[in-house]
Amino acid sequence: MDSAKLRSFVDTAWEQDIVPQLVDYIRIPNKSPAFDKDWQTAGHMQRAVDLIAGWCKAQPIEGLTVEVMQLEGRTPLIYMEIPGEGDDCVLLYGHLDKQPEMTGWFEGLGPWTPVLKDDKLYGRGGADDGYAAYASLTAIRALREAGGKHARCVVIIEGCEESGSYDLPHYIDALKQRIGTPSLVVCLDSGCGNYDQLWCTTSLRGLVGGDIRIDVLTEGVHSGDGSGIVPSSFRVFRDLMERLEDSATGKILPKGFHVPIPKQRQQQAAVCAKVLGDGLWKRFPWAPGTKPMAKDRTEMVLNRTWRPYVELIGIDGVPATASAGNVLRPYTTAKLSLRIPPRADADECLALLKKVMTEKPLHGAKVTFSSEKASCGWDAPPLASWLETACAKASHTLFGKPCVYMGEGGTIPFMGMLGEKFPDAQFMITGVLGPQSNAHGPNEFLHLPMGKRLTACVAMVLEEHLVRARGGKSGGGAAKAKAKAKAKSKPAAKAAAKPAAKGKAKAGRGKRK
């Protein structure tokens, strides 16, 4: 494969074709079903599907098939197949639904207003994750144009990832026979520590949460009359939170929310801390005088990726300050979002959260908990040597720097589910969500140079995957070449036996333990 030709093709495709498509995509307010209960009648989901599927169908990739599927009562899914060499299979994943608007966009920017400025495309969903379908097919097409080959590829673009991917398992089951058994999964919905090299995600935190409501009255009363007799519902909530979280440090107190951090992940965290330096924390839009929760950068990485932390993401029962009167409010409802470690059981954590937040509240206040989310995290299987080599080669070729492995603090429910269904698959989880890209928040942007290079990296990994598939599970072309070298210096029978045994041993190390 001609890497220079590959990169040139990818750059041209992004500039002339993909960016205009993403501009149109950003304009569509296709909020995920969790944030738009009327998504079917609104028609935005269908518009996004039509836009992306239409572009995909027009791509001149021999053998490409594009199908829009919609199981009854489910969000739609775009399913694509591209024939390739051999019997192996690669599954590439992305999604087309979006987070809600959020406030705080800079002047001239907005969630549904695409703005191209300084190599960045602003607007909701471009980086999370509208580019995935375009990048996946462009990587395949670029690989072919540059003289490379790949295994059979399956591309899945779902419509409810931001709502927890609750529809996806139904599609995976329905498509099980057509998909087959992928040996490599490529997910373009993750982050990067900087825009200077390839980043691969090794783990994801899970997520549990829900609404906790504290009632002390059936209606509000004058605060001068009731305070001192009637307890504040907010104070009861504060007391319940103290059971969950140390207010001075943010540490989650119940041991049931914690898991041991594997030694390899600690080592990878130290590497990430060294690579990123103070950029690890300076990338956030700090209010003046605010400081990070930890001083040690490695601890910051581990806090973000392997330790549980909670955030209050919504509150009801509290009027806006402009309309606040001297009233002792009858209730407070808080929406909690608790990130849990990759290996924690989400259902057990949700049950523990409910128990901690509802048992024996102050003053006998009425407390109810309505659970909303229970998504497990994910910890990658041991990295196969061929994939490590492939990612290193792609990063050095296209960025001039090594590939870095880091856990992510967010949740991609799809990964845990697919990890269970395909336990022997290798995973290349990566993405363009880097410093200040601000997915889910205001001023979200897609870093275009990163998008281009990442697309080319995927193409190179697809080629290396085929080399590995052809050479057996022995670590790809390097192991195959080593076996040939041994064959020249040893009797044929011994040379044939020893590389095979070595290949088997390496394959075993690539499986989930």
Describe it.
The chain contains 17 helices and 18 strands. The chain has 513 residues and is an alpha+beta fold. Helices cover 40% and strands 19% of the residues. The strands form 5 sheets. Strands 1-2-6-3-7-17 form a 6-stranded mixed beta sheet, covered by helices on one side. It has helices at 3-26, 39-42, 44-57, 126-145, 168-174, 176-179, 223-226, 233-244, 263-276, 279-282, 297-306, 346-358, 385-398, 413-421, 448-470, 477-489, 492-509, and strands spanning 65-69, 77-82, 89-95, 115-117, 120-122, 152-158, 184-187, 199-204, 206-215, 221-222, 309-316, 327-328, 331-340, 366-375, 378-379, 404-408, 426-429, 445-447.
Q: Can you give keywords for this protein?
A:
513 residues; alpha+beta; 6-stranded mixed beta sheet; 4-stranded antiparallel beta sheet; 18 strands; disordered C terminus
